[in-house]
Amino acid sequence: MSRSVPADVPLVGWGADSVGPVSLPVDRFCPRRRAWVDEAVRLVEADANRSADTHLHVFPLPAEWGVDVYLKDESVHPTGSLKHRLARSLFLHALVNGWIVEGTTVVEASSGSTAVSEAYFARLIGVPFVAVMPRSTSPEKIALIERYGGHCHFVDSAGDMYGAAQRLADESGGHYLDQFTHAEAATDWRGNNNIAESIFSQLALERFPVPEWIVVGAGTGGTSATIGRYLRYRRHPTRLAVVDPENSAFLPGWASREPGYTTGVPSRIEGIGRPRMEPSFVVGVVDRMIPVPDAASIAAARHLQAVTGRWAGGSTGTNLWGVWQLVAAMRAEGVQGSVVTLICDGGERYRHSYYDDGWVADQGMDLAPYAATLERFHTTGTWSPPSD
Ligand SMILES: Cc1ncc(COP(=O)(O)O)c(C=O)c1O
Fold first, then answer.
1. pLDDT (tens digit, 9 = 90+) per residue, 42-71?
2. Does the beta carbon of 218 sit less than 6 angstroms from any atom of ligand 1?
3. Using CA atoms, how far apart are residues 115 and 104, in angstroms rounded to an integer?
4. Ligand 1 in reach of 326 Cβ (< 6 A)
């Protein structure tokens, strides 16, 4: 009888010596556990099936400019942000990898939109969820996570989140979902109604159905990775621009081609900008990076609200500041076409910060010069930002 060593039995590491040569098949199939995973996958897929696609709004610009700007509104997802897509992908990825089974405590390092969406999916499949976050996290975010049954675990600083999350998962025999590592792998960049495929199908009947630019920010980098890969996979000429807030490692790391670049300073624009280059930020798919002052991000988010009545978060403002300067450049070069960006989450979560003049002043930010730039651009079409 030949020596058969089933593929899933590693002979190195955890005491291969103790198991000795494995000569008999080792069966780990458990019908009950498999049935639980099947049902969990069905529940997550059913959630997707119940959800309509997010809208693509037109931003009102003079038609004679020959440039159309579109806003992909991810704030209308059931959990209010683009992270609903990522959380769904991360849970499916972990379920099909056998990392989440019945009773697994799911842990994540996030103070933001990701934790809100992951708490929703944890409750959907019936597992405990713990979000590890800095003590400074906004009460609105904590309330949203707890509303979906999530438990919040506080650490002193953002930098402590990753290690604390891994420790909590190890101590509870749980699973650290780790959005920063798995975002790019968990999301299907070929299609499967990912955000890029959805944008192109919603542009199909527009006068410029293939955009010149798609503009997004980066937190995990998962969104920009998915869009950048999809553009290349579908051989679209569209370019990807990534906007980056103050103190973030992404732009300097990308510009200097230093994957280990760190700033050690957290971003003030929730959801984007990181103190280190994150594993899911795929530098090879980014065509241009645009630095955006935090005051400009907030001024642009407020401008969106003033013009369209739509409340959005700071990272949407960062996107728009990048969009307007690209539109101005297209006009200056006589290029007609479309530009697409995202409304990443709703503004109601930031009433006590970006939409609060007192909070803005306490941060030492003056929005006036940036608001003036936006006013001038939308009346004259010329882009003259305040000199730094
Ligand atoms: C509000 C908001 N905007 C943008 C992003 C960036 O998305 P990604 O993590 O896919 O780079 C995030 C990520 O957390 C976010 O919460």
1. 999 999 999 999 999 999 999 999 999 999
2. yes
3. 16
4. no
Is the confidence at residue 9, as pLDDT, over 70? no
DSSP 72: E
On the question of a common fold for 48-80+190-380 and 83-184, the answer reads yes
Q: Does 84 score more than 70 pLDDT? A: yes
Distance from Cα 23 to the centre of ligand 1, integer Å: 49
* Cα torsion through 297, 211, 238, 92, rounded to 10: 70
Domain ranges of the chain: 48-80+190-380, 83-184
In terms of Cα–Cα distance, which of 250, 249, 245 is closest to 268? 245
Q: What is the mean pLDDT of residues 196-222?
A: 97
Ligand 1 atom 12 nearest Cα: 271
Q: What residue type is assigned to position 161 of the chain? A: M
Contacts of 376 (CB under 8 A, 6+ apart): 382, 384
Distance from the alpha carbon of residue 358 to the mean position of ligand 1, in angstroms: 25
83-184 is classed in which CATH architecture?
3-Layer(aba) Sandwich (3.40)
Pick the residue whose CA is nearest to atom 1 on ligand 1. Answer: 271
119-132: average pLDDT: 98
- What is the structure's pLDDT at 312? 98
The closest residue, in CA terms, to atom 5 on ligand 1 is: 271
The whole-number average pLDDT for the span 211-230 is: 97
Instruction: Please tell me whether the overall predicted TM-score, pTM, comes out greater than 0.90 for this model.
Output: yes
272 CA → ligand 1 middle, Å:
5
Residue 272 CB less than 6 A away from ligand 1 = yes
Q: Which fold has domain 48-80+190-380?
A: Rossmann fold (3.40.50)
Phi, psi of 248 (to 5 degrees): -85, 150
The predicted-structure confidence for 275-305, as pLDDT tens digits, reads as follows 999 999 999 999 999 999 999 999 999 999 9
